[in-house]
Amino acid sequence: MSDPQQNPVRLDALDRKILSLLQQDASLPLEEIAARAGASRTPVWNRIRRMREQGVIRGQVALLDAESLGLEACFFVLVRTTEHDADWAGRFLAAVRARPEVVEAHRLAGDIDYILKVVVRNARAYDRFYQSLISEVRIQNVTALLSMEEMKATHALPIPPG
């Protein structure tokens, strides 16, 4: 992730079009991206390379379908703790990063300290995750919320106007 103190990268209309296309389908051939963006291949390639170097494009991945893999339960796990020292935070971060079922983790402002998005097969699998987590780090309170329906999910970021 980029440094929050860093100024945002300046993007022109062509950069934004390229990014929009890549967010829709990063497997598009360069020729197709160039055609849809209304530019020639070499300038589009140079812009993609520059945006990678600047950290705007962090990588390319394949998006998998959780249900096809038998992962039918998504829990949002709200974590409260009374411990905020660096040692505890390091152990908690290590425990969260070591678990592939945690697909997102955020430190929050407000009454809840952390929220985790946990994708597992079922409630029993979630309980195994939970028992494992609390055996490694002391947590004051955990609330698990089962998602009944995913109404929107995207990895596409809103690209700010120039």
Explain this structure to me?
The chain folds into two domains: 13-53, Winged helix-like DNA-binding domain superfamily/Winged helix DNA-binding domain (Arc Repressor Mutant, subunit A); 67-146, Alpha-Beta Plaits, CATH 3.30.70. The chain is 36% helix and 17% strand. The chain contains five helices and four strands, in the order αααβαββαβ. The protein has helices at 13-24, 30-37, 41-53, 86-97, 123-136; strands at residues 73-80, 102-107, 114-120, 141-146. It has a four-stranded antiparallel β-sheet. Strand 2 (102-107) and strand 3 form a beta hairpin. Helix 1 crosses helix 3 (41-53) and helix 2 (30-37) packs across helix 3 (41-53).
Topology:
Layout: H1 13-24, H2 30-37, H3 41-53, E1 73-80, H4 86-97, E2 102-107, E3 114-120, H5 123-136, E4 141-146
Helix pairs in contact: 1-2, 1-3, 2-3
